[in-house]
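Raw record, unedited: Acetate CoA-transferase YdiF
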Amino acid sequence: MEDVLNKWMEAADAVEQIFDGATIALASNGGGVLEPDAVLAKLEQRFLETGHPRDLTVVHALGIGDGKGSGLGRLAHPGMVKRVIGGHWSWAPEMQRLAKDDAIEAYSFPAGVISTLLREIGAGRPGLVTHVGLRTFVDPRIDGGKINARATEDLVELIELEGREYLRYKPFKVDFAIVRGSSADESGNVTLRHEPADLDVYAAALAAHNSGGRVIVQVKERAPDGYVPARLVRIPGILVNTLVETPGQVQCVVADGDPALSGEALSPIGEGFYEIPTGIRHIVASRAAQELHEGQSANFGFGIPGGIPAILAQQGRLGTFWGSVEQGIHNGAMLDGPMFGTARNADAILSSVDQFDFYSGGGVDVTFLGMGEMDGDGNINVSKLGASVVGPGGFIDITQGARKIVFCGTFEAKGLQVEQVGARVNIVSPGSVPKLVGRVQHITFSGEQARIAGQEVLYVTERAVFRLEPNGVRLIEVAPGIDVERDVLARMAFRPLVDEALLRQAKQERAA
């Protein structure tokens, strides 16, 4: 057993362990949640000064960084990273550029797949076998999760068990896990008691330790009295090789020690806590909220769906359903924007690995998620827009387990302006970029797979609502003030199924 007295190091000394070609697992989230940025900053500094370590493989499930160079952005230097297997990339635009320029081997898998694959690696099992990803871009029959031309190795395969198709995500050796906690004791036991989430820190640490690798943990302080209560230990000391004390570590970008965020205490939530969405976002979120019913288990995604809880609060409907997000948060006053994935006064905070098991197994009645592109087969793309890799985050894990899916998005992009007067929606200025296209660039959601699974799927925009049916996508609703032919059908790249009653109603309105 490693000498516990040697576990405490300065960050600069800790990163000296990391060698060329190493595989590093990270476990963080946007908003600075569990971000071990002090260690990553020293790793970046070492590379810029010495050119080492280089040719790293970096594995992460959720977005890491502030979009201005922290987190994953610390590693985004030519030559420093050879390969990235990422679930969500948007908080590290520098790494997105390396992928776009074919400067790295870029792969993207569902966030839950990455988190649970780390657990399976740590458990010594033969990779992750799951239905998650079938008929999407991670399916080897399509792209196999490869995001650019540099990515050529097959990391996932299609298998069959008892007549059913599954994907097997292959295991790999993890040399280092770089994670974060609140404090640690002299035995190396780490607690996350002051953090807004647990995420997959344990899975990352387990994967590294049981691969014969090493675990580096950044903490704010040494535990008071030198002891972490056993019930509060999230990473046991047996897994920990190096501890880096960082007194300047903050809880997240919006708070430094808010016990309501970490689930340690309750705080009053005033009427002005939720920022009510405006404009198009309000129109779409309000219509989508009609699909949530009392007593349901619901999930809310990033973007337009992140505004739905505010609408529900405005309607007095909070507490009538059970809400959750992929970071492991259940109920509470959910935060939006860069702090999406956290909440004040949560009912429960689980690891994201456990949360993804809940989603994958069908624990959600209805999920509300964003919509980048949509096509006539009912496919949705949110993972690669133009040449930029965004990644699916938990999108695929959630959509392939939920009973009902409500996609929320604008009908067009770039320049779209609308106004709502009473119940009427008027198109002030159309968007110049179509979103209802002939064929989506990336299949993040498979309409075919949803039909096979018998899921109910709706697509909600500011002017029209569509439903996935066995023989296509059907236009089922048009907002008052919207002309079906001019504002909807003429501005789509495919012809949906349309009820004759809807067309007759439109003709009568034009005649009136």
